[in-house]
Design brief:
Helix content is 47%, strand content 17%. By secondary structure, the protein is an alpha+beta fold. Strands 3-4-5 form a three-stranded mixed beta sheet. Strands 1-2 form a two-stranded antiparallel ribbon. β3 and β4 form a beta hairpin.
Length: 154
């Protein structure tokens, strides 16, 4: 029986070099992937704000104006009259024992704000997502308000 002499695998140094190359490539690509994920999530939050704005406009045409001071009541009115779907909302227990209805947004720290003058906008945590502001087009920028979280200074 004849043994094969060319039965050779990869050496340890070859495997280490390949792993190092994969590591370098992944460190260059990973931040860009995370940034794109956050940008897509922010755009999704902005689209949610646009949907809520449309629901408020439709509600105001058919009923009395939405109370901008009491978002819980406003969300409940929009859900009860089927202008918005309840599956997108969650009930949050407040410290004082009350319950608040909140729209679930994709980026942590984002929340919807509403005023009669500006309409519905997404309040974005400026410290965490500052780099995303430059990547939005002008139409999307008017829907987002970049602010520092409460208690933080610029």
């Amino acid at each position: 029986m004849k043994l094969l002499k060319n039965n050779r695998g990869f050496t340890l140094i070859e495997v280490v070099i390949v792993m190092a190359i994969i590591g370098v490539i992944s460190t260059m690509v990973a931040p860009q992937v995370v940034e794109q994920f956050n940008l897509i999530a922010l755009k999704s939050d902005i689209q949610a704000a646009q949907s809520v704005e449309n629901a408020i406009e439709m509600y105001n045409v058919n009923h009395a104006d939405i109370d901008e001071e009491n978002w819980t009541t406003a969300y409940d009115q929009l859900i009860d009259k089927e202008y918005l779907d309840a599956k997108d909302f969650k009930i949050v227990d407040e410290e004082n024992g009350g319950k608040t209805t909140k729209l679930e947004l994709r980026l942590d720290g984002n929340e919807l704000i509403y005023s009669i003058d500006e309409g519905v906008q997404v309040r974005v945590n400026k410290e965490a997502y500052q780099d995303l502001e430059d990547k939005l087009d002008d139409n999307m920028k008017k829907w987002a308000v970049f602010e520092l979280s409460a208690g933080e200074d610029e």
